[in-house]
Amino acid sequence: MSAMNLATVVATIYSGATYTDIADFFKIMDTNYISERRFYDIQSQYILPTIATYYEEHMEDVLREMKGQCKPITLMGDGRSDSPGFSAKYMVYSFMKEKTEKIVHVQLVQNTECSSSVAMEKVGMERALDALLAQGLSIETVVTDRAPSIRKLLKDKYPSINHQFDVWHVCKGLKKKLVSLGKKKGMEDLLLWTRSITNHLWWCCQYCGQDSSVLKRRWLSLLHHITGEHEWTVDGETYSCSHGTLTGDQCLRTIWLQCGSPSFKALKSLIENKSLIRDLEQMTLFKHTGSLEVYHNVILKFAPKRLHFTYDTIVAAQTGPLQWRARQDLGWNAADVMELQLIGREIGDRLKNTGSVRRQVSNVRDEVGDADADEMGYVGGRDACSDQ
Ligand SMILES: [Zn+2]
């Protein structure tokens, strides 16, 4: 097999493109490209097995590293389905270690294994957590969104684990509700406060000193501040805002809400919502899963939700942890990962000629590096694809 064909398939996969994307590109350029049959042959024979092997080795290293640490572990978890809405065929549940931001476990679930697509997240998390606990890891805290099935699972099956809610998700949900209220007639002034309110929730969690009573009191103080009242009394105790003295100009320019106005009443109902107040008790450690969201965006590049993928390629999309590690730890880019896998011993073993592949890839890279645009036109051309 030509090294250029191999490099072409790897480059296509690692650029997050599909065969059709690149084939269309070359068609417009009036240049030959590797055939579809050959592309998928190389993908299934060499690329996917290599990714699987490398992925397993990488995850074993991560696990070994975690086992070597004696400090209790905080994990951030979230599920990602393969399609928008509630018709997912696959769900990938990922756990990221908070301190290192390394993906420590990825669990793939198919909808045929669950009663509904919604149940897949719970099943994925349970399997992932059981697998990590079976390794003897001391998991102290798990951070997730507020999905009812997940909170019930952690409460019933893993009562010793501290379940914290992701502040980022709660702020996101709150913003959505505020924007929805602000679109109603007579409540437009709420839109002016949306950002300040979500920032306030973030600040309350960050500086509550892990004390839920302080967190709740500060959160509810919002209802005083937003009406222009910065000092107030509760049960004989006097409290005040933490922002210091406002200037006359600040007071005049701010659109304070009027007590008893429709927007104030709607906001009060939202701020004092019983389930939100109860859930603040599980937000005292100020944990958020922003890094996990970024990681899911990396995966999205390789397995967009609008396209259908086979089981094998969904598994291969788990190579996200490799990409993630490359970016985070080593400063590598995708091309470096590609090179690592191209020249990796797995491919070499399969081709029975590692040295030859390495030389071919190296030669190809030298040629491309020295070539001008016309010379590069041979990529995927008949000469390069002579073994088809
Ligand atoms: Zn105030």
Pattern of helices and strands: HHHEEEHEHEHHHHEEHHHHHHHHH
Q: Name the CATH superfamily classification of the largest domain.
A: Ribonuclease H-like superfamily/Ribonuclease H
Major sheet: arrangement of strands? 3-2-1-4-5
User: What's the count of strands?
Assistant: 7
For this structure, the CATH topology of the largest domain is Nucleotidyltransferase, domain 5
Catalogue the ligands: zinc ion
- Strand percentage lies at 5-15%
Oligomer: single chain
Number of helices: 18
> How much helical structure, as a percent, in the residues?
40-55%
Low-pLDDT segments, ≥5 res: 324-388
Keywords:
single chain; 388 residues; alpha/beta; Nucleotidyltransferase, domain 5; 3 domains; two-stranded antiparallel ribbon; 18 helices; 7 strands; binds zinc ion
Descriptive account of the structure:
This protein has 18 helices and 7 strands. It has 3 domains: 100 residues, no CATH class; 117 residues, Ribonuclease H-like superfamily/Ribonuclease H (Nucleotidyltransferase, domain 5, 2-Layer Sandwich), CATH 3.30.420; 114 residues, no CATH class. It has a 5-stranded mixed sheet with strand order 3-2-1-4-5, sandwiched between helices. It is globular. Helix 1 packs antiparallel against helix 16, helix 6 runs antiparallel to helix 11 and helix 13 crosses helix 15. With 388 residues, it is of the alpha/beta class. Bound molecules: zinc ion. The site of zinc ion (ZN) has 4 residues, from loops.
